[in-house]
Design goal:
heterodimer, A: mainly alpha, 3 helices, B: mainly alpha, 4 helices, sodium:proton antiporter activity (chain A), transmembrane helix (chain A), transmembrane (chain A)
Chain lengths: ~90, ~120
């Protein structure tokens, strides 16, 4: 029973990622695309959790933390770039 | 007992996948950046936390080892995803992305203009 539920959940998540990719391609402004890419990263975390249940292994669970951290850092960097036009500010020289 | 555990895990995973799907449809259907951000940063966060909790219950109760990395992942996503949504929404407002045509109230307009960002 759990196998069928995991298949259905993987299908739902794949459909969600297709919908988000539509928003990445079409999105009228740049923050739309960043929101959709962040949500894609978070859905990828759920897909990895489901695949590691499906394969009955716990070898992939570090990847969950890794993708979570990378998605957060990428989103913060994009937001700062949009707002201030630079990523790393220079130190004042006085 | 085993069947009950399987049903609980299945409910958590199913609810999580359904919430992620609802978040994605919200990101498609809603009219402007701020409402899309509202959908994506709440529903997707809760859905992924639910899926990860189902995976944690599976590895703990069925396979029999306590996996702290999944709990860390739940806590981390719970802390960081709303913060990322807030930063993106603020960047969108400060770079001048318009609100929806039919939205009637903008509290931030006077404050941002007076501070002249």
């Amino acid at each position: 029973m759990l196998d069928i539920v995991i298949r259905i959940a993987l299908f739902c998540l794949a459909l969600a990622m297709v919908a988000l990719i539509y928003r990445v391609i079409k999105g009228p402004s740049m923050p739309d695309r960043i929101i959709a890419l962040d949500a894609i990263g978070i859905n990828l975390v759920a897909i990895i959790a489901l695949i590691s249940i499906e394969l009955r292994t716990n070898a992939f669970l570090e990847i969950i933390l890794l993708i979570g951290i990378l998605a957060f850092i990428g989103t913060v960097a994009f937001a700062k770039y949009l707002e201030k036009e630079v990523l790393f500010e220079r130190e004042r020289d006085h | 007992m085993n069947e009950i555990i399987n049903i609980i895990i299945a409910i958590f995973i199913f609810v999580g996948a359904f919430l992620s799907l609802v978040a994605a449809f919200g990101v498609i259907r809603l009219p402007d950046v701020y409402t899309r951000n509202h959908a994506a940063s709440k529903a997707a966060t809760l859905g992924v936390m639910s899926v990860l909790f189902g995976a944690f219950l599976y590895f703990y109760l069925v396979e029999g080892h306590f996996n702290s990395r999944l709990l860390l992942g739940i806590v981390f996503i719970f802390m960081t995803s709303p913060v990322a949504g807030h930063l993106i929404s603020r960047a969108a407002y400060n770079t001048g992305v318009k609100l929806w045509d039919k939205s009637v109230h903008d509290d931030l307009k006077t404050k941002v203009k007076s501070k002249d960002i």
